[in-house]
Structure formats: C-alpha cells, structure tokens
C-alpha cells in the first residue's frame, strides 16, 4: 500500500525569488491527490522537492518517519526508490526501444535476472496497454503511448508513491480520458499514493480524492475534492471555471480593485466569458471515475470515507452536504449521520447535519489554518471500534489508519487531522 507523505511548513526559493512558502499538507496513503495552480506557481518545483531533487530551505517532508529535507544522501537514495515519477514527456531514452526503456530502472537498481526483468516489464506493459509495442522506439509512437511507456517505467520498481507531472499535457481530450481511466485503474491495482500536477480541469474534477491549489506563493487550499469543487473562494472558482474574471491574471495576479470590479460586474450578469477551460470546467460535484469493470475496488475509498468523516465538522457547509449526500443509508447509520436528524439550513431537500459524537468522545481538533467548526450540532466521530474495518480506533497506540491493520504496512496517521484540510493563503 502507498505511504503517507507529510509536508510541514515547506518553503522554497531560488535566490531572492520565493516560489512558495509555509506549505503544509498530508497526502493520505493510497489516495489520489491533484495539485492545481496557474503556470509558474511552482507545482513542478513542489514535485521535485518531494522526490528530493530540490532542497527547500525550510520545513519538512516526512515519509515513514524520515524527513527527506534533512537525511543523508544514502537515506535519500533509499527513500527515492519508493517513488515512481511520470515526467511530462515520459522522459524516455530516444535510442532505446520501449522494452529497454522500461527495463532500465530494473537493470540499474536491482540484481534481477533477465528472465525476471522480462516478466516484470511485460507485466507493466500490459497494465498500461502497451503489450506488443516492445520493439518500438519513442520517436515512432504517439504522445499518449510515450506517456504510457513512461508510466510503465515508473511502475517497475513497485513504487509506493507516484508523482505525475502534467500527464495530460499535449494529449487530446479522448486520450486524456483514457489516461485518466488508466490512472484510476492503476490506483485500484497497486493502492499507491498518487499526486498529479495538472491544468486539466476535467482531470481535476473526476480523478482525485483530494485537490490542492497553489497561488501567489501560498497553498490556498488542500482538502477533500468536495471542498474545492464546492468552494466559493474566488481564486479556486476562477481556476475551476477557466474564467478570465478573478484574481488570476495573464501574468499571475491582478490588482485588487480590478478583481473587485470584475466580480461585481459578473455577479450583475454583465461579463461573459465565451471561452472554456481545457477539460470542461464548472464547480459542483461530478462523479469520480471508478475502476474499469473486472478490476478490484480502490482500497483507498473506504479509508478515505473514514478519514473524511472524522474531519467533516472542520469542512465548509457545502462540502459537508456533498459528502453526506454521497453516503448510502447504511453508511449514514454507521457514521452516525441520519436523514432528518440534523438542523440543516431549513431548506427543503438539504442533506442532514451530522449528529453529535457518542457520549464521552471529545470532538476532533480544528485544523490549523482551517475554518472554525460550524456552530450547532457536533461532528460525527469515527465509527465505534467494533465497527472499524480493522486496525483499531483513531489515535490508538498502533497509530494505524482504519483498514490498515493486519498484513499491510503500518502507517502513522498525521498528528493533526487538519493537515488533511488546509485553507490558507491570500486570494
Ligand atoms: N532550477 C531552477 N532554478 C531557478 N528557478 C527555477 C528553477 N526551477 C524552477 N524555477 C522557477 O520556479 C518557478 C516555478 O516553476 P515551476 O516549473 O515549478 O512552475 P509550474 O507551476 O510547474 O508551472 P507550469 O504550470 O507552467 O508548468 C518559475 O518561475 C521557474 O522559473
């Protein structure tokens, strides 16, 4: 299973140019997260920092207890082997055929026999739909196939974390849709932690469990997809709708008077933006892509439900509503949120508010940098121990997440659940 990646107060500059500062977030194990942001906001720099190719000046990146900003070169090398990275162009060697390209990390980093290498290479090529293309050179295949080959190569060392740098760049919408399905299918099969940097709004709306956004050297938000997809934060709304009106300008930012005037005019219905974002925009919840028929369910889905229900009370109302509405009746009962039991906002059809915690159970802490808890009914708590899938209660001595008990690798959960939802920065 994938590992958790904990980023704390991370800051990166080049000389006097601050790229971003005080970035704090946690990539939950096995979940798919997307990082958005206007061009030049440092998304690629963030990916390179995660994999230890760039050294941030301040802060921590903790993976299985190791802070890779402070560890030895040898330890960093070991941690890096746990990553797979899909670079924008696949980063293939032009003179090698696809088979040799994909076999390269195995030949470089392991002592496996050629027979074993062959078995692994063909297995990964089959996973990405490239079986039969072993002898092709990168220059002889389409951009989509090159990305698939790059992905197969990223998979050969069985990574626990996979970073995707704009996997959809240069692809047409149909190829992008296939690649997005492939990403979800791979996650279902290997349960690794995925982080995708993209500009494609369709990808951002349909693939991830979590979305983050960088803007003006800050992480504006990071949290469950429902938070950003229902957000009224101007910069998030503008980006997800691909509009010209809003805080994001041609050269990154606009002056605040212009932003205010545009937003006022838009609210009055005066401004039209005939263009549309790549990948189709719009806010609101759209269904997440599910694994293809015949594949296992994504294990992260249940873990995420348990996790998100624990922080539900820290999320904005619209996100709470969307999350509760996505639960089945049985799940609502399990998590202690019942139809008609909450106060709601008095609107017909509005989803129920969560009920209070079971007696004796204190509410979870509010997130650092997050919104204050909503007044009124108390948040739901994780299911009683007897109902947890396995692995014990939150905060138990084992420190494991529900569902990660026996068999799986033990993962520390973040000490601060608020790192799973951050709202900060300026917009
Ligand atoms: N090695 C480096 N040395 C100096 N500056 C760098 C270096 N790498 C990146 N930068 C600068 O960091 C800033 C952020 O770059 P980055 O490529 O991470 O942005 P991005 O958000 O990924 O952009 P895009 O969406 O266009 O790919 C840019 O101003 C870039 O010039």
From TrEMBL:
Enumerate the residue ranges of region (Disordered). 269-302, 341-427
Domain of life of the source? Bacteria
- Bias category Pro residues: which stretches? 351-386
Recorded GO MF terms: ATP binding; ATP hydrolysis activity
- Please list the residue ranges annotated as the ABC transporter domain: 5-241
Cross-referenced InterPro entries: AAA+_ATPase, ABC_transporter-like_ATP-bd, ABC_transporter-like_CS, P-loop_NTPase
Return the Pfam families for the record: ABC_tran (PF00005)
Q: Which UniProt key words apply to this protein?
A: ATP-binding, Nucleotide-binding, Transport
Protein name as catalogued: ABC transporter ATP-binding protein
User: What is the organism of origin for this protein?
Assistant: Gandjariella thermophila
């Amino acid at each position: 299973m994938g590992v958790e990646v904990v980023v704390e107060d991370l800051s990166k500059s080049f000389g006097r140019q601050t790229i971003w500062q005080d970035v704090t977030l946690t990539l939950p194990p096995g979940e798919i997260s997307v990082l958005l942001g206007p061009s030049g906001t440092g998304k690629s720099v963030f990916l390179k920092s995660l994999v230890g190719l760039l050294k941030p000046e301040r802060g921590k990146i903790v993976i299985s207890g190791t802070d890779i900003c402070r560890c030895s070169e040898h330890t960093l090398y070991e941690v890096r082997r746990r990553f797979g990275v899909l670079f924008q162009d696949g980063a293939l060697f032009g003179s090698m055929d696809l088979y040799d390209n994909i076999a390269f990390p195995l030949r470089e980093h392991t002592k496996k026999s050629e027979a074993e290498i062959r078995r692994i290479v063909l297995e990964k090529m089959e996973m990405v739909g490239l079986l039969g293309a072993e002898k092709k050179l990168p220059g002889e295949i389409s951009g989509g196939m090159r990305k698939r080959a790059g992905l197969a190569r990223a998979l050969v060392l069985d990574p626990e974390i996979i970073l995707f740098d704009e996997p959809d760049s240069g692809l047409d919408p149909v190829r992008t849709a296939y690649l997005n399905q492939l990403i979800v299918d791979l996650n279902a099969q290997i349960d690794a932690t995925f982080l995708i940097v993209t500009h494609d709004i369709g990808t951002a709306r349909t693939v991830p469990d979590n979305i983050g956004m960088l803007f003006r050297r800050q992480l504006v938000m990071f949290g469950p997809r429902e938070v950003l997809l229902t957000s009224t934060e101007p910069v998030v709304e503008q980006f997800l709708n691909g509009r010209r009106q809003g805080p994001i300008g041609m050269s990154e930012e606009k002056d605040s008077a212009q932003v205010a005037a545009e937003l006022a005019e838009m609210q009055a219905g005066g401004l039209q933006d005939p263009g549309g974002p790549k990948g189709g925009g719009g806010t609101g919840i759209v269904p997440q892509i599910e694994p293809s028929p015949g594949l296992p369910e994504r294990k992260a889905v249940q873990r995420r439900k348990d996790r998100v229900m624990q922080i539900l009370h820290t999320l904005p109302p619209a996100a709470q509503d969307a999350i509760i509405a996505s639960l089945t009746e049985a799940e609502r009962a399990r998590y202690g949120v019942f139809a008609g039991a909450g106060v709601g906002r008095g609107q017909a059809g509005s989803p129920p508010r969560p009920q209070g915690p079971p007696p004796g159970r204190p509410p979870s802490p509010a997130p650092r940098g997050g919104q204050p808890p909503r007044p009124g009914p108390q948040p739901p708590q994780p299911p009683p121990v007897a109902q947890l899938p396995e692995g014990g209660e939150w905060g138990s001595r084992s420190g494991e997440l529900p569902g990660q008990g026996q068999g799986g690798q033990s993962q520390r959960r973040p000490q601060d659940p608020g790192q799973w939802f951050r709202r900060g920065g300026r917009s």
